[in-house]
Amino acid sequence: MLPVSAASFACGEIAAGPGPAIAAVASGRRAAELVDRYLKGAKGLPPEDEGAVIGPLPAKVAGRIPRRARREAAGPPGGKAGVLLVPRPVPAEPDALYEAGRCLSCGLGARVDGAKCAACLACLRVCPYGVPVAGRQAVMPVEGCLACGICASVCPAGAIAVEKVDMAAGPHLPLDGRLAGKVAVFTCLGACEERLELDALKKNGGQPGLHVIEMPAAGALRLEWILNAFENGAAGAAVIACGAGECCHPGGAAYAQGVVARARSILEQAGIAPERLCCLRPDGERDAASLLAGFIEGLK
């Protein structure tokens, strides 16, 4: 990363030439930090943090990861590829988001608070990759954890935090009645190619208001999150999981469907129509937005 002038910065292949995509991502992040320092009036360059080295992905974990096929960019050539000057197709935004969803979130996984951990083994039971190591307290090897958040959602002591999302605090649901008349939408971060459609639906003035709660994976869904939404005035709640073959985490969608089924039973016992809650999974014919629009229409 080289400051070209007092107010311009270069990073990635422009500064270092061709290299791995992950190196370009790291370079871009470093450039963003330097730009932030510049805008705040800081002088000079801070020492570059080399960061921790993450070991190779364990074979037992790699064997359990569902494979998601790549989407090759089909758009017209746009721009140049570093110093190679080779035109590359520019992917459409949904395809780019899909590719981003294939990221394994290395280094952004679970962290255990030893002061809270009781070594109850709940995390070991639910981890779809068999990552936790049990001892006097649970240990999450950084090279194996894929940040699905399932362990954090079931930890009875709240001893597990996930780097990329605040699982300890739970979803940020308004607790002062602001959910009244709105639909709470619990969405899996893995279904990132659907975000564009969800954003468009949120801006549609003809639809009830939406309150979107992002989860690291469908398998991290908690029963109490759904019930809290209704307790705080939600007109309905929808859980959006990845479509078949799209989820980065095995069994997550099926788990979410089970949680929704239990929640519907509780709602019915409390005198709330269970039809106000559903679990949606996009398929080849319908995307998340159309499924959600149909659900909202049924609430009227």
TrEMBL record:
Hey, what's the signal peptide range on this chain? none
Tell whether tRNA-binding is among the UniProt keywords: no
* UniProt xrefs under SUPFAM superfamilies: 4Fe-4S ferredoxins (SSF54862)
This protein's record includes keyword Protein biosynthesis: no
Give the highest taxon in the source lineage. Answer: Bacteria
What's a single GO MF annotation on this record? metal ion binding
Keywords annotated in UniProt: 4Fe-4S, Iron, Iron-sulfur, Metal-binding, Oxidoreductase
- Gene3D superfamilies attached to this UniProt entry: 3.30.70.20, FAD/NAD(P)-binding domain
List the Pfam families hit by this protein, alphabetically: FlpD
Every copy of the 4Fe-4S ferredoxin-type domain together lies at 108-131, 135-165
Q: Which PANTHER family match?
A: ADENYLYLSULFATE REDUCTASE, BETA SUBUNIT (PTHR43687), FERREDOXIN III (PTHR43687:SF1)
| UniProt protein name | Hypothetical membrane protein
Give the organism, scientific name.
Pelotomaculum thermopropionicum (strain DSM 13744 / JCM 10971 / SI)
- From which lineage does this chain's organism come? Bacteria, Bacillati, Bacillota, Clostridia, Eubacteriales
